[in-house]
Amino acid sequence: MSITAQFLFVAASGARAMERKLESVTNNIANVDTTGYKREGVKFSTIYVPLTQPPPSKPGQPHPVGYIPTYNLVLNYAGSSENVIYMEQGALRETGNKLDFAIEGKGFFVVEDDKGNRFLTRDGSFKVDSQGFLRNNSGFYVLGTGGQRIRVGSFSDLYVSEDGRIYSQGDEVGKFLIVEQPVKERVGHNLWVYDEREAKISETSKVYQGFLEDSNVNVVYEMVKMIEAHREFDANLNVIKAGDELLASLNDFGRV
């Protein structure tokens, strides 16, 4: 493969990497107002490939015109991408709603769908159904310690302490199951994959009633990242365009 073609592959991998970075930034900006949303980034692996070109056809023969000694030069390709989640605490915003809850710390609420599938969430905007069960905005049951679905009955005098204990009409009716777990995958609806093997009870997280956690997205920072990614994307496209024109010129020269 010619040197020009190899540089084209490098530029193409760089352009694809910047495209993936732009997707991540756009997703962050779109979720700036999503309760409990955690911003994401992209980390790329680097592939190192020695720069090669065909040597002269015979030992001792002069190098052809345009031959560039490469010695130990190496090309850097952008390899596979991996999502990175940044779990910094979002600001706590007071709502005054007795059924809004925010976590301060590294913990997550645990919710369960009708089939028993469990998920993690930082979105504590809950409601009480007709049977008195606490549910999230997707209709999933909110779980308490022991994995029981929390049932509060009347919520007119509902009170929740900072350690997650839930009181209704003066009686303790449950305690939020707050767990810590390395997050790996989003599953939509502001939920994360729950792994029972890795999840552990959070001993330090606090629950605040009447508050919700804002996203940890900084719009100004994300806009700067977007501008940088656009510039790098355009630069790679210019390299591809210049290399393509050079290859076309060389092909035309060979036909003369």
Task: Report on this structure.
With 256 residues, the chain is an alpha+beta fold. It folds into 2 domains: 3-87 and 230-255, no CATH class; 92-213, no CATH class. 25% of the residues lie in helices and 29% in strands. The protein has helices at 3-30, 219-255, and strands at residues 40-50, 74-85, 92-94, 101-104, 108-112, 118-121, 127-128, 134-135, 141-142, 159-160, 165-168, 171-175, 178-180, 186-188, 191-193, 200-201, 206-209, 211-213. Strands 5, 6, 9, 13, 14, 15 and 16 form a 7-stranded antiparallel sheet that branches.
Pick out its properties:
single chain, alpha+beta, 2 domains, seven-stranded antiparallel β-sheet, three-stranded antiparallel β-sheet, 2 helices
Task: Give the tally of structural domains.
Answer: 2
Radius of gyration: 28 Å
Low-confidence stretches: none
Beta-strand portion reads 25-35%
Global morphology: elongated
Number of helices: 2
Element-level helix/strand string = HEEEEEEEEEEEEEEEEEEH
In total, the number of strands is 18
Separation of the first and last Cα atoms? 22 Å
Q: Report the average pLDDT across residues.
A: 84
Given helix and strand content, the structural type is: alpha+beta
Helix content, binned percent = 25-40%
Largest sheet: 7 strands, antiparallel
